[in-house]
Amino acid sequence: MHEMALSESIIQAIEAGAGEHGYAKVSLVRIEVGPLAGVECEALRFCFDAVSRGTIAEGATFDILETAATAWCLPCGKSVAIKQRFDACPDCGSHQLQLQSGEELRIKELEVN
After folding, report:
1. Is the pLDDT confidence value at 3 over 80?
2. Is residue 75 within 8 Å of residue 93, measured between CB atoms?
3. What confidence score (pLDDT) does residue 1 get?
4. Whole-structure pTM over 0.70, yes or no?
5. 9-37 burial by CB neighbour count: b if 16+ within 10 A, else e?
6. Would you tell me which of 20, 28, 71, 77 could form a disulfide with 97, CB atoms 3.0–4.6 Å apart?
């Protein structure tokens, strides 16, 4: 389950930020996850809860913002919403799409004390 490794990386980034900016406790962790990131959000939530025990993020609210995936359709010249990789353009049916967003996995916001 790579969600455990992702959770550990999130904790490492939070602790590195604490050392750099001098905060001692994190009360909220908000992350952005795209639908094409290959992350199971509920598994990530479970893993974060387990990994955060004994850290400055223990007990923090873990909020996941699920973003949309978009691609640029070369024939249409438009940005279109897609649900998964290799979807066809919803307007013209073309498969000549260039991914613009949807692979995100990033810490969006922290509330710290």
Report:
1. yes
2. no
3. 56
4. yes
5. ebbeebeebbeeeeeeebeebebbbbbbb
6. 71
pLDDT in tens, 13-51: 999 999 999 999 999 999 999 999 999 999 999 999 999
Longest Cα–Cα distance in the chain = 53
**If you search the block for the tokens 């994190």, which residue do you land on?**
26
Structure confidence by residue, pLDDT tens digits, 70-84: 999 999 999 999 999
| pLDDT for the residue numbered 97 | 96
C-alpha 40: how far from chain center: 10
* Residue 25, token pair as written in the block: 């406790």
| Residue 49 vs residues 20, 40, 105: alpha-carbon distances, Å | 24, 14, 17
Q: Indicate the CATH number of 2-68+101-112 among 3.90.1010.10, 3.40.640.10, 3.30.2320.50, 3.40.50.300.
A: 3.30.2320.50
